[in-house]
Design a protein that fits this description.
Length: about 190
């Protein structure tokens, strides 16, 4: 015992007196404080600019279009969390061309259809955070979010522990969604690199 009301965990560590178990996720520190944390969004260092230059699997790219591409979020809110990004390094919708905006919305729409077929979510959150003040993690490069949601997918972890439990590996999700993405039309399977 380490204080009034405290007990020990099965491993012999003291349990906090508030009754909550602690779920430690030190692997998230690479995003919070480590090498995966984006501190510069110059075009040369932007992950949305450098990613499409390499293999799709390495950049988690699900689909390449003419002016935009679709990739999985490296730090997703839910399995299948998609990002729709223009290839050009532009900060928001107002700086995207009409063709980029039109294709981005079409890719969001197709992303929803693909996620419905592959993952069967019961809803979606879609949107764009424009600028650091609005929560954009990579404010220098416009991107839209498509987040699949399921009834009851939000439990205490995101609210209390600021932690999200994801049941599927990103590589597995990328393969499943890339295989389910429709082909044809004017999009190129190879897209710009």
């Amino acid at each position: 015992m380490t204080g009034a009301g405290a007990t020990e965990t099965p491993d012999g560590f003291p349990r906090e007196a508030d009754g909550y178990e602690r779920l430690w996720t030190p692997h998230r520190m690479v995003y919070v404080d480590g090498p995966a944390k984006v501190t510069s969004t110059t075009e040369r260092e932007c992950p949305f600019c450098t990613g499409p230059r390499g293999p799709d699997a390495d950049a988690l790219i699900v689909h390449r279009g003419r002016t935009c591409f679709v990739a999985l979020n490296l730090f997703p809110y839910n399995p299948g969390h998609l990002l729709v990004c223009p290839y050009r390094h532009v900060p928001d919708l107002t700086t995207m061309t009409a063709a980029e905006r039109a294709e981005a919305i079409e890719l969001v729409t197709t992303g929803i259809e693909v996620l419905r077929a592959a993952k069967r979510p019961t809803g979606f959150n879609t949107g764009m955070n424009t600028g650091e003040g609005a929560g954009a993690g990579i404010a220098g490069h416009a991107h839209l979010h498509v987040v699949p949601r399921w009834d009851g997918d939000a439990n205490f972890l995101p609210i209390i522990a600021r932690t999200k439990a994801l049941p599927e590996l990103l590589g597995d999700t990328r393969e499943q969604l890339a295989a389910a993405w429709p082909t044809g039309g004017e999009e190129s399977a190879d897209g710009p690199r």
